[in-house]
């Protein structure tokens, strides 16, 4: 609400400069004109102030601003009482607007001016402003997760390769943070190589899964500037207390434990060591002349993807996205998922009822990739198809949510976020068969 505060200060300044000597009105006239142009754009209230001012006061605000504008174009001492009344009304409206509580979730917005100078993340100052706002919105139903991360042995990277390659490492890791938390929260640079993610409405289990995905993506990324990869450690803390004062120190403490435990791992504050997410799956053994030896797998190759397939996918994605590693990463991840779907059989022995059948049939009508959305209370949103049910009946919503969870369990859909699901290739084949 800083814009409203600035406008309020200007209005107060305007009030204090109303001339007691009508022979010297220049300051008052100039301020009145400036005030109008600050408030209005083409005769309409500027969007920033329009959103902040209650609807019942917008007409009065517009009329008061127009009164001041008219006064600034033709100063008349006899009109001064009208101008005084107008500016008093403006100040009252602005004080009321400034006192309104901030919009819930407004801290998650990421305007360009918040961006760090180097990384595609918000600056440390913004983190310090957003953290108390995010904590204040935490509740038992909507816990807040804070993920603190740190690049392992980053000083050694700078010492060996120099600061410019080190900056490229930071950019790469920062972009992965932004990619992973997109739609789930907001990512920040809180120190040199220290980053953080605030994820609202996220349980400890979801925060651990999000952090592990982040850690795995970093470990699997080859960064051309250093000709190799780096690893990441993460500490996770979750609170349901809107007055919590420890979530930041709890996440930092968990991060310290992750570092002390060998790095390249995720630890949740307050959990037993068994609850910490494991490091990436061990490389499989192959037979050599001297017995079992570790297979020499390329950096970043998932354990369940054959090396020749991995190399083919990486070569294609690098050719398609030579200068955009974030899109290259997305391309690789999509191709890996497609390979797994082709070579992993759909679970058998499960059946799905009319709600799941309706979802699949609607997806077939909607196109090859169907995005299925549901809001926080499980109501289906109409996606432009009559086949989708939009109902406020909790029982109907619950049946459709259960149907979608069944599709996920069957491998016919996958969860993208808490509110977004995507049909898989196998799911679309099923849908197409139902349609036919």
What would you say this structure looks like, in words?
By secondary structure, the chain is of the alpha+beta class. It folds into 4 domains: 2-98, Four Helix Bundle (Hemerythrin (Met), subunit A); 112-275, Reverse transcriptase/Diguanylate cyclase domain (Alpha-Beta Plaits), CATH 3.30.70.270; 302-343, no CATH class; 354-435, Arc Repressor Mutant, subunit A (Orthogonal Bundle). Helices cover 50% and strands 12% of the residues. It has 15 helices and 12 strands. It has helices at 2-16, 26-39, 47-52, 55-73, 80-98, 124-136, 154-161, 163-181, 204-219, 247-260, 307-320, 325-343, 354-366, 394-409, 425-435; strands spanning 40-41, 44-45, 144-151, 186-189, 194-200, 232-239, 266-268, 285-288, 291-294, 371-373, 413-415, 420-423. The strands form 4 sheets. The chain has a 5-stranded mixed β-sheet, sandwiched between helices. A 3-stranded antiparallel β-sheet has the order 10-12-11. Helix 8 packs antiparallel against helix 9 (204-219), helix 11 (307-320) packs antiparallel against helix 12 and helix 13 (354-366) crosses helix 15. It starts with a helix and ends with a helix.
